[in-house]
């Protein structure tokens, strides 16, 4: 399994202090920063878009922005996110009928490619061709749309199914993941751990990040 990558979800941060919060997480050992982009169409919530990503990138040029695109038209935002400094562009398979051309367009802009599945989407929605063309596969463990929800255990078998088919890919879990739920995810084969409230609400984010890392690498 590829090594552990911890990606704190800034959705749980104080947006008024966004760049400081990102720096705090990087100082605490975060490898990626998980940027939840919601458009009010694919999900019933609006968060941030390319201008905010650009401001964060301007303040922290060496940041790795893991952009989770909860948007209805993922084709539409590739250039804007690339221009804003996005490092990884993760789209939902439910939101496109043309995943392979979309993957090619993300690569053409020198971003890594992620493909996400929501709780009701089977792992088989990620075909061999799509999975092999991606860098990272994201198994949502809550319904996308907001932070602080309860972890859906029933999504974990999909991680194991994808790990069996794609032994070398990064497999990310997102939603309700923290010290008490990470072991199930890691055991099933996830190596990229998103955690929002579990990290940002902790007295010591650094301790939570090192605990999550240890759970994956053990
Ligand atoms: C949910 C987002 C998640 C969320 C995770 O739609 O994609 O990234 O912020 O937050 P927690 O870890 O609090 O469930
Ligand atoms: Zn997310």
TrEMBL record:
SUPFAM superfamilies: Ribulose-phoshate binding barrel. GO terms for molecular function: D-ribulose-phosphate 3-epimerase activity; metal ion binding. Pathway: Carbohydrate degradation; pentose phosphate pathway; D-xylulose 5-phosphate from D-ribulose 5-phosphate (non-oxidative stage): step 1/1. Its EC number is 5.1.3.1. One of its GO terms (biological process) is carbohydrate metabolic process. Catalyzes the reversible epimerization of D-ribulose 5-phosphate to D-xylulose 5-phosphate. Homodimer. This is Ribulose-phosphate 3-epimerase. It comes from Mycena chlorophos. The lineage of its organism: Eukaryota, Fungi, Dikarya, Basidiomycota, Agaricomycotina.
